[in-house]
Amino acid sequence: MSKRNKVMVTGGCGYIGSHTIVDLIQNGFDVFSVDSLINSKEEVLKGIEEITGKKIENYKIDLSVPGSWKAIADREPEIAGVIHFAALKAVGESVKFPLDYYKNNIGGLLEVLEWMKYSKIPDLIFSSSCTVYGNTNDLPVKEDAEFRPTSSPYGRTKQMGELIIQDFFAGFEGKSISLRYFNPAGAHESVLIGEAPSNPALNLVPVLTETAIGKRKSMTVFGTDYPTPDGSCVRDYIHVMDIAHAHTLALRHLLDGKQHSSFDTYNLGMEKGMSVLEVINAFERVSGIPIDFIRGERRPGDIAEIYANTRKAKDILNWMPTRSLDDILKTAWEWEKQRSKI
Ligand code: UD1
């Protein structure tokens, strides 16, 4: 292990960030968070502390403001690596407010890279998405598939983010990995942390749990006329703790000097396509609650089907997801009940 053992997690109070902090601590890392709290709450740090016994510090700064990080950089000279989550992620919202997405997702990334240069932090893990593949026909999709046009500014910030990182690391003494998530869902098994969006949920699994608990009267299946077996969209759902552990493995891979190229990418999914209707059925079975849903119009920007080939993460990072779709839905449901105090 290098002398530096401290990991900076941007967006550490957010969904995947908070779960990753738990996994990092349980694997021996010291961690601090940088989170502006525009779409998250510092309370999540209490949940992390209850799970791990460790108190995590969060620096409340907006990374998209140039130089906002300088004072902290001088206080934290021993950073081994950065895991950069801090970003906006609502596809539809990004169409309405593209400048917010470019400012936060691209502006924030540029500042993180400036910080890395300033503090000579060698290694970066970037939070990317299968959205970079656009509407690909090449399924299960592999990392070497080309970037196809993506339907939203959000998707473009992930494509551009990867290109910026490649350019930066080509001339920087350090290494970088981009982790392309498919559909992360579920919560930590303790349900002391989970997905807690400040705004109404938009992703399928939290929409399902909110419907089951009665926060919504019913939900809509966006499109049942896709060219898929049952007509609804097919995605690859992966447990958030399996995603979290991939970050620890990727960072360890870089810190141990095992990566030769300056930039590499890995898919994180279950290699299994599940339709929206199949997920609803599975949720009803797991929770015992019937879901009131309507068959609605297609949601603009959705693609019919995408699922991952994850051979590379398994072979090189030794990553193996250990939770099933049922585990995803059970923990998401327990988390919803816990949050709603039922
Ligand atoms: C998209 C991106 C993903 C990104 C995520 C961030 C793609 C292929 N995926 O995921 O990379 O990280 O946004 O938010 O671009 N659905 C319903 N009813 C609902 C909600 C969702 O039917 O109320 C359906 C959607 O049409 C979709 C599936 O459920 O087919 C999953 O949707 P969602 O959870 O929003 O994720 P993606 O759009 O797949």
Task: Give your account of this protein's structure.
Helix content is about 40%, strand content about 15%. The chain has about 350 residues and is of the alpha/beta class. The protein has a domain at about 5-190 and about 240-270: Rossmann fold (3-Layer(aba) Sandwich). A seven-stranded parallel β-sheet has the order 3-2-1-4-5-6-11, sandwiched between helices. A two-stranded parallel ribbon has the order 7-10. A two-stranded parallel ribbon has the order 8-13. Helix 2 (about 45-50) links the parallel strand 2 and strand 3 (about 60). Helix 1 runs parallel beside helix 2 (about 45-50), helix 1 (about 15-25) crosses helix 8 (about 240-255) and helix 9 (about 275-285) crosses helix 11. The longest helix has 22 residues, at about 100-120. The site of uridine-diphosphate-N-acetylglucosamine (UD1) has 24 residues, from helix 7 and strand 8. Uridine-diphosphate-N-acetylglucosamine binds near residues 155, 203, 204, 220 and 302.
